[in-house]
Design goal:
209 residues, 9 helices, alpha+beta, Glutaredoxin, single chain
Length: 209
């Protein structure tokens, strides 16, 4: 999670072609009906992950509960924010975080959630590489809708989980094992960490001056 320390902006063209959460869900479902995944690369594995992620998203949507303190923080925001998320339907981390992002944005009409597919927008994605090298998703870029100025960024994972990911990777664990551990962490955390991180960032950047 990062506060903006730069003068980066997101051009209006990206906001114009972004889609709603509902449209994104429908897009992924429509592609799955055709036996496809989002993005230019197609495989049985990506389709399988996309199907699994739709189930995960549905589960999070049905079970998550907004923390009272998070509700209080976000409903007090008065500065308009557009939360633009770069993602793909096959991304396991996105399946756990996107429904949370949607639920939090819905708490305040000043917050507008929009979604872009990563592989259709490589120029924007490459401004937000993790550690300057990885096109890791999901990546949330919060901007001032009037100017496109970046307010804060978040992703691809909660801070503690990202540190755990680096640790497991440095230990040389197989990627399938790492993925299982990541999903186990999400299930145990029950969206609490994502909620708190996003509320802190959105509240801080909404302060005057």
């Amino acid at each position: 999670m990062d506060m903006s320390g730069t003068d980066r902006k997101v051009e209006q063209t990206y906001l114009d072609k972004s889609i709603s959460y509902e449209a994104y869900r429908q897009l992924v479902e429509d592609l799955l009906t055709a036996g496809k995944a989002t993005g230019p690369q197609q495989s049985e594995a990506l389709t399988h992950y996309s199907e699994l992620n739709m189930q995960r998203m549905h589960r999070v949507e049905k079970t998550m509960q907004v923390l009272p303190e998070v509700n209080d923080q976000l409903t007090r925001i008065t500065r308009p924010q557009t939360w633009l998320v770069l993602t793909e339907g096959w991304c396991g981390d996105a399946a756990q975080s996107l429904p949370v992002i949607k639920a939090l944005a819905a708490l305040n009409p000043q917050i507008r959630l929009r979604i872009l597919l990563r592989d259709e927008n490589p120029e924007l994605m490459d401004r937000y590489l993790t550690n300057g090298v990885s096109r890791s998703i999901p990546k949330l870029i919060a901007v001032d809708p009037a100017t496109g100025t970046e307010l804060f960024t978040w992703g691809p994972r909660p801070t503690a989980l990202q540190e755990s990911f680096y640790s497991m990777r440095s230990e040389g664990l197989p990627y399938d094992v790492i993925k299982e551990e990541l999903q186990r962490w999400y299930n145990k955390d029950k969206t609490v960490t994502i909620q708190r991180e996003l509320a802190a960032l959105a509240t801080e950047t909404s302060k005057p001056g």
